[in-house]
Specification:
The complex is a heterodimer of chains A (about 400) and B (about 350). Chain A is of the alpha+beta class and about 400 residues long. Chain A is about 65% helix and about 5% strand. In chain A, the strands form 3 sheets. Chain A has a 4-stranded antiparallel β-sheet. Chain B is an alpha/beta fold. Chain B has 2 domains: about 210 residues, 3-Layer(aba) Sandwich (D-Maltodextrin-Binding Protein, domain 2); about 100 residues, 3-Layer(aba) Sandwich (D-Maltodextrin-Binding Protein, domain 2). In chain B, about 40% of the residues lie in helices and about 15% in strands. Chain B has 15 helices and 13 strands. In chain B, helix 4 packs antiparallel against helix 14. Chains A and B meet through helix 4 and helix 10 of A and helix 5, helix 6, strand 9, helix 7 and strand 10 of B.
Chain lengths: ~400, ~350
């Protein structure tokens, strides 16, 4: 067999017969169509806006907002702060729900997915039923249903105290908060440093174990770095410990921390709905691992939980991650249905902004920009994670 | 009637040299005539203003104001298409031309006229923001609401008025903002909010809807803002603006002279100059507006005068006429002379 040989290199010819030339022309034509369409849309819109004397531009972001917002992670006063700050609050509220939602969806979905493959007939049937019911109900109905449930709780004046200082009412959940002192900040910092140290120590221990077969003990360091040092720092500051316990006023609880009824309803709805999909993804991932893996591991004398954790799940992840990315994106985007039940997410706040300023195009552009950024970030992270987990071809 | 009218327009355009006079000179009016229908943006879920009755017919002050304009332009009040809009999408609907005008209990403010490319042609309801509370709360004045949770619709001028009020009185409040009106009212009824705030007319209507349970709710005496509600049209079409504004004035003038839906035909025999101008018997008032000279007659014949509209739509909810009386009756409703 003769060895493969490169085709002779040839310069491009300005002829339709030259595929390279043809390709370039096509690219130019397509780019031109896309560019022209965008230019037409922008020019047409701005001409019409000007003709109708509708205000344009983003100057309104610097104006005093005046719109009240129920929940904000950063300080906000409608009579002082600007639309720009209201917009940031909207982003933070959306991120907050998305992050908590993604974590809960992963945990619940993984549990239900694994449990639905359990040998326990009752447990697996229950999980299958859960999945079927939860994913068959439209998300909006989920939200309205759970919000109605939350509203059905006792009113604030008749709040139930489930634990000392923890009150549940249709306003949400009120919890005592630790009165945060510098001592707590330093102790937390020491704890984080401790975590890093223990991580390093464990890696070293594994290396030594791989080299010599003996694993040096890590736990004495762990106790010292994670418990003793932070505790000493905290004691050194005089051991401040004061709980800020919510006290019932006429209309609201003073002090303590709160989770609003709207956020609870939104999270319950989002998590139940999306965890059903996540469970199916996990189940399909596990089923995709050939049964020979289970049998081989069993033959080595490993327990079922160990097999699942060490052998099956790592292989299943390759199947799980790509569709799971879609589920996470779904959580992020569907959190915008919060509008229906009054949680002040990004869409709710920007909707109000564009309504008060009349600048709908700018508002919608802002919403699209933020969701695009959030979605791309999730996708990038998951693609990176997927690449890390992917089967390494040799 | 409409086709006849359009035919007359076309004929006029052909025959007269001063074609501009015969044509409406308004893109919006021309579009309405061509379509044979007035697209009127309303709330569609607001008692007293626009709410379908058991037959599916839109009832309310705003609905009738729309009909009067359809009668004035097309000669037939039934040629009104009601397009329900939310507090949030109403301005976009107007700007994009989905509706010809908004009669959606929309407050006339500088910001809206300045930024939205729209202007207000009438005030068919002088209103003000109020608070509704449960009687069991034992609140007597809005000044006692420090720390309260307030249910309010997002994107409304109420929202801004409430924020201003609490700031001026150095009080705190937690807003619950829900776009959907029934969800919002649900949140108030379930006790999620201590008070529900919107235009006091809307509160009265909502309280009335509670039937026997109305006594469990109290409308606080404080009115914290001016809310003149009226018709909103796009800027840049002054002729259409004129017809919307003067149809409203015509219903006021009719009330002033005691001309009602029932006796409007007798007014055709009147010798009072202003009534004759109103009825289109002299003065070519309709022509000046770019519509048929019988425009006001049609509007009154088919929808009644302003007071009749009020009695039909608002009085059943127990809301007193108050400042919405005619000017010579101690109110603010005042029409410039028709001459």
């Amino acid at each position: 067999m003769s060895s493969p040989r490169d085709a002779p290199r040839k310069g491009m010819q300005l002829s339709w017969a030259d595929p390279k030339f043809r390709a370039i022309i096509w690219q130019i034509v397509i780019l031109g169509i896309i560019g022209g369409t965008i230019w037409y849309l922008v020019a047409n819109t701005s001409a019409n806006l000007a003709q109708r004397r509708i205000a344009t531009g983003f100057e309104f972001m610097g104006r005093t907002a005046g719109i009240p917002i129920g929940e904000h992670l950063i300080a906000y006063d409608p009579s002082i702060n600007t639309y720009g700050r209201a917009f940031v609050i909207g982003i933070l509220n959306t991120l907050q729900v998305t992050i908590i939602g993604v974590v809960l969806v992963t945990l619940l979905g993984t549990f239900v997915g694994i449990a639905s493959l359990s040998g326990n007939w009752l447990l697996s049937r229950l999980c299958r039923t859960y999945v079927e019911i939860m994913r068959d109900i439209p998300l909006l109905l989920h939200l309205l249903f759970w919000y109605t449930m939350v509203l059905g709780l006792p009113i604030l004046r008749e709040a139930i105290e489930v634990l000392p200082g923890v009150h549940i009412s249709n306003n949400g959940v009120k919890v005592p908060l630790l009165d945060w002192q510098p001592a707590h900040s330093w102790a937390s910092l020491a704890f984080i440093v401790g975590l890093v140290l223990v991580g390093i120590a464990r890696r070293r221990a594994t290396r030594i174990q791989n080299a010599t077969g003996d694993r040096p003990k890590v736990w004495p360091l762990a106790i010292a770095a994670l418990i003793l040092v932070p505790a000493i720092i905290w004691l050194g500051f005089g051991a401040p410990f004061h709980m800020d316990i919510p006290v019932k006023g006429r209309f609201r609880f003073e002090g303590g921390g709160a989770v609003s009824g709207e956020m609870i309803a939104l999270l319950i709805g989002l998590v139940l709905y999306h965890s059903a999909y996540a469970a199916e993804i996990v189940r399909s991932g596990i089923t995709s691992v050939v049964s020979g893996q289970w049998e081989a591991a069993g033959a080595l004398g490993l327990h079922r939980p160990t097999v699942l954790r060490k052998i099956v799940l790592p292989q299943a992840l390759r199947v799980i991650i790509p569709p799971m990315t879609s589920t996470y994106l779904g959580v992020a985007k569907n959190s915008s249905l919060a509008v229906a039940i009054g949680y002040p997410d990004l869409v709710a706040i920007v909707n109000t902004m564009l309504n008060q300023t009349g600048q709908a195009i700018e508002g919608i552009a802002l919403i699209m920009g933020v969701y695009l950024t959030i979605s791309l970030t999730i996708s990038l992270f998951m693609n990176w994670y997927n690449a890390r987990m992917a089967l390494v071809e040799r | 009637m409409n086709r006849l009218f359009a035919g007359a327009l076309a004929a006029g355009a052909l025959l007269t040299a001063t074609a501009a006079f015969a044509q409406s000179g308004s893109a919006t009016i021309d579009a309405i005539v061509k379509r044979g229908e007035l697209n009127c943006g309303v709330a569609g879920n607001s008692p007293m203003f626009s709410l379908p009755d058991s037959q599916g017919v839109m009832r309310g002050l705003d609905a009738d104001s729309c009909r009067a304009i359809a009668a004035a332009i097309l000669g037939d009040a039934k040629k009104t298409k009601f397009i329900p809009t939310t507090a949030q999408n109403r301005f976009t609907a107007l700007q994009s031309g989905e509706v010809d005008l908004l009669y959606r209990s929309t407050t006339w403010t500088l910001g809206r006229e300045g930024n939205l490319g729209a202007m207000f042609a009438s005030v068919n309801f002088y209103d003000g923001t109020g608070f509704l509370v449960k009687a069991s709360l034992k609140v007597k004045s809005a000044k006692e609401l420090d720390g309260a949770t307030v249910c309010v619709a997002p994107g409304t001028s109420t929202e801004l008025a409430v924020a201003d009020y609490f700031r001026v009185h150095k009080m705190k409040f937690t807003p619950v903002l829900i776009q959907d009106l029934s969800e919002l009212q649900n949140a108030y009824l379930s006790g999620r909010c201590d008070t529900y705030s919107t235009d006091s007319s809307g509160l009265a209507g909502f309280r009335f809807q509670q039937g026997p349970k109305a006594v469990e709710h109290i409308l606080l005496p404080d009115i914290i803002s001016k809310e003149p509600l009226g018709a909103m049209v796009r800027k840049g079409d002054d002729k259409f603006f004129d017809i919307v504004r003067w149809t409203y004035f015509a219903t006021l003038i009719a009330e002033e002279y005691g001309i009602t839906q029932a006796n409007v035909d007798e007014a055709l025999k009147s010798t009072v100059p202003e009534i004759r101008r109103l009825m289109g018997l002299e003065g070519d008032m309709g022509k000046a507006l770019g519509v048929d000279n019988k425009w006001a007659y049609n509007a009154i014949k088919q929808t009644g005068n302003f007071g009749e509209g009020w009695d039909r739509n608002v009085t059943p909810y127990g809301v007193p006429r108050g400042i919405n009386n005619l000017w010579n009756n101690g109110g603010l409703q005042y029409a410039p002379p028709m001459r």
